[in-house]
Design a protein that fits this description.
By secondary structure, the chain is mainly α. The protein contains 10 helices and no strands.
Amino acid sequence: ALLGELRVIASMIVSSFRSLFWLMCILLALAYCFALVLTQGAASYFQDVESSGSVPDEAFGEVKDTFGSVLVTMYSLLLSMTGGRSWGEFSHIISKAGIFYGGMVMMFVIVNLFSVLNIVTGVFVDGAIEVAKRDRNMMIEKQNSNKEATRKHLVALLSQLDRDGDGTISKDEFMDAMAQEDVQAFMDALTIDPDNAAE
């Protein structure tokens, strides 16, 4: 059973590679689109600081270090999404260029965490279920396990019906047992029809 479960898990991992590839493509595409807007906002901020003739301060350096280019901005966005660094920090930094850009960072995180990743998680789970269904050996083992559990429950039921312990169940013993709610519930759980069993 353990080897069967290990085989299913390995099959799930292998079959998820294609979905993982497309997930990375989607995430990178979204990060690139948001990075273009944020980097443009950072560039405008740099121009404003330089044109004003003021000396670049610490905030200027932070914006340049985190949103100085498209690639750097994409890296910052991926960090904010994966927990490498708080997205609130990035939002606060780019807010120096305008509150709109701070909102863009928050929007990026919301879109990815509550939309893209949840949808992709559903796709992965559905794929894993399909792989498990297709695994014939796993299905056979599960059926055998269910049969064994049913057999044990049936033996326990028959032992309960045989009140005098003579190894046989008379009709009177059976009808008396059918009047008990716990026995009826037991038989229902085993999908046994009492009427057919009495016949």
